Amino acid sequence: MNAMLQDHPETVRELVARAAALKPLLREEQAATEANGFPTRRVYDAIVAAELFNILTPKRYGGYELNLDDFYRVVIEIARGCPETGWWFALGTGHSAQIASYFDERAQAEIFGFRRNFQAPWSFAAAKTQAEKVDGGYRVSGTWYYCSGVPYASHFMGNIPLPKDADTTGTPMLTVVIPDGSFTRLDNWGDLLGMKGSGSHGVTVENVFVPEHMTFSFDADLGLTGPTLGYGVHRNPLYSGLFAAFAEGGLSAMSTGLAYAAIDEYEELVATRNTPGRQTLRAYNPDYQRSLGMAVALADSARAITLAGGALYLENAALCAPGIEPFTVEKAMRMDGTYHTAERLAYEAVEILVRTASSAALKQDGRLSRYMRDILMTISRGHDQFEFRAAGIAQALLTRNRNFSFPA
Questions:
Q1: Which strands, in side-by-side order, build the sheet including 125-134?
Q2: For tag attachment on the chain, is the N or C end more exposed, with fewer CB atoms within 10 Å?
Q3: Per-residue pLDDT for 220 more than 90?
């Protein structure tokens, strides 16, 4: 199939069309995915057959090496079929961009050559982690949580805090990459209000040797001032960006697809059911028309923000890689803010539709009810909730423009 997909625009259109064509299957499997805790094998095999796992993987390792906004287009279509599958896909698959950015050529060849269809969650939420320095690498143990994408994953990526030293300004981390067979997925996901099928299980690692070249260290409070290792390998700015400007984009795309899924359900509702107490379809009622139209505008706005974020990531990375302009944490935080704003718009779209659909359309196992539960989980993720993070944008702005100083 790859031989048929050489021209970039045609490749994108074909992959988006393949993702959209999965919608009937994804919707058919929604309940099973939710009950399972992660996408069913039918869903996984269909995504493999559509060759959607390698959108951001470098060409030299058999991938398409497309842009971030192209990846978001595919995520939107998958989430339109099943938001929980969209979450699992976005957070498990997108990290091929970080592997190609932050690891050297030896590590990349080993990781992408391990198994076709790279997938790896990257967890920052850990307990009792340990990385003992040994000859040639580290002995790693620990438990990580919210490892979205770990079912069917080829690898696991986990963060381990490092001791601070005089040269450290923020929170230094060691990221380790561990192949399937050397980590254990916990059976601890699915007992929440929504996103039950997102495959966000915990992972345990016990005394596993991780070679030095399968690790990298970074400070989450620092930006980039020049090219990454990956830029030197691939000469593509996609692989020379700041992860903090990338991380929320996949969920922004998922939320956008979720909003369109709710719109699809509402459109079916108004086209097939009468207005209560009347003998005319709701489609002819201006109240339902208004709700549907507002939701469409909100979803379209979320989509525009999300795709613009993907393009801006590439623009910032293209300036940073040759040393023209740094990819600062402030830039990353402001991009993160736009992604969260897109998620909020998606929530507003779903809320309008749920509120005006009538109780008969909100059965416990109905799609519209599931979409409402899922979007609520998306916008209420503890430290990832935008209200808890927005102050950082203001602090960065005031520090740069007014020389204010804020405690770490």
A1: 125-134, 137-145, 203-211, 184-185
A2: C
A3: no
